[in-house]
Design brief:
With 372 residues, this protein is α/β, with parallel strands linked by helices. It has helices spanning 14-17, 75-92, 129-133, 135-146, 159-162, 207-216, 231-238, 251-263, 278-283, 306-322, 341-346, 349-359, and strands spanning 5-8, 22-24, 28-30, 39-43, 49-55, 61-67, 99-104, 113-118, 121-126, 150-155, 168-174, 181-185, 188-192, 221-225, 243-248, 273-275, 289-294, 324-334, 362-367. Helix content is 31%, strand content 29%. α6 (207-216) packs parallel to α7. The two termini are 34 Å apart.
Length: 372
């Protein structure tokens, strides 16, 4: 096989030799003669083979490395990588859990590919020109590695436009998942809308936090702000909360929340599913809660939006604390990729000590990784 070659400038081979999977445009001495998405070899200035990956002349990341060996990148290769990724995930997965991320792009040495598993269905995102060019082998590999009932595509990230790709959405193989698919997480039922829900259907990255909410909730009144499909709310109810108020500005999210309650045999009171803006809700002089959960969408979509996002986090956390009973718990999250843990904590840290000293309340906080 004659693989086009991308030659690096002298001295620009260090990061790839250290196994970083990206080759930036500035490191390239000679571009390969290749179409966007093509497989190319990365070679040192002296011609030595260093890595193999997919090329995109329109991206600052010219090559995304799949392997450091001279091996074919085909369905068999992708199957090996996916099988390995899935084996690792399953080794760490709690019991009674059938929804989880199988493959997270570069994190699993499969750049541009995200695969989530939901009760036997695979939901995939193809995010780069390179992964797009491998679409056929990817479907074969997902079929071989997971053996799913169906493969559904949710390639709708804005990221695709940067790679010169249109959004894509729909069944790729096998059965279409039902509109409201019941899955299990730590023994709790969750309802996922694979075709139209947010992300690939659920916020799978909040599994551990929902478990923590289950532990904390006993005997408390809970505010589940930005509730989406009610995962935190159901976990808190199962954990013994006396009442949970779920607030979201999406009617469909609240409907999924009610379905989630029903799937767990929890009584649904419509008064506990509020279609409202959380900022407005928090400013009201309503009841205080024993446990406040704040899990907003990413407030900073870009670096330029960071300071506005930090003001947003501060606002909801301040107001959340105002609505917290003495001795209460508050959990706040950020999924803004541009806001790291230190920055997020800085957005409210002065308040935290005030609150700890004056109100004896405990604040837990976390940033969570973004699932694109
Ligand atoms: N905690 C959820 C995920 C929350 S995602 C879970 O574990 O599954 C963020 C949610 O916030 C979305 O459902 C979105 O509809 C909602 N949302 C975004 N902005 C909002 C606002 N200003 N007020 C109320 N809800 C909002």
């Amino acid at each position: 096989m004659n693989v086009p070659r991308c030659q690096l400038k002298p001295g620009r081979d260090k990061s790839v030799r250290a196994r970083h999977p990206w080759i930036f445009s500035g490191a390239v001495a000679r571009e390969p003669e290749a179409e966007p998405g093509a497989i190319v070899d990365v070679i040192g200035h002296d011609g030595e083979f260093l890595a193999r990956g997919t090329y995109n002349p329109d991206s600052q990341i010219r090559v995304r490395v799949f392997t450091f060996e001279q091996e074919p990148i085909d369905a068999a290769f992708l199957t090996r990588r996916l099988t390995e990724a899935r084996r690792w995930r399953r080794a760490l997965l709690p019991e009674n859990t059938d929804c989880f991320r199988v493959c997270f792009s570069e994190g699993d040495s499969l750049p541009g590919l995200i695969v989530d598993e939901y009760a036997g269905y695979a939901v995939i995102q193809i995010l780069t020109a390179g992964a797009e060019a491998l679409r056929g082998p990817i479907v074969d590999a997902v079929t071989a590695a997971i053996g799913p009932r169906g493969i559904y595509e949710r390639s709708e990230s804005a990221f695709r436009a940067d790679e010169g790709l249109e959004k894509r959405h729909g069944v790729l193989a096998g059965e279409e998942p039902p509109p409201e698919l019941a899955v299990t997480e730590n023994g709790m039922r969750l309802i996922a809308d694979i075709a139209h829900g947010q992300k690939t259907g659920l916020f799978l990255d909040q599994r551990d936090a929902r478990k923590l909410a289950y532990k904390i909730a006993d005997g408390r009144t809970v505010l589940n702000a930005f509730s989406y499909s009610g995962g935190f709310g159901a976990a808190a109810m199962i954990g013994g909360a006396t009442r949970v108020v779920n607030v979201d500005s999406s009617a469909r999210a609240l409907e999924l929340g009610r379905r989630t309650y029903e799937a767990n045999g929890l009584a649904v009171d419509d008064a506990d599913f509020l279609d409202a803006d959380v900022f407005d809700f928090l400013r009201e002089d309503g009841d205080a809660f024993g446990f406040v959960i704040l899990d907003p969408p990413a407030f900073a979509k870009s670096q330029a939006g960071v300071s506005r996002a930090l003001r947003g986090y501060k606002e909801i956390i301040m107001q959340g604390l105002r609505r917290l009973e003495p001795g209460g718990f508050l959990m706040a999250f950020s999924c803004s990729g541009h806001v790291d843990t230190a920055l997020f904590q800085k957005s409210f840290s002065a308040r935290r000590s005030t609150c700890a000293a004056r109100r004896r309340s405990c604040c837990a906080s976390a940033t969570r990784s973004t699932i694109r």
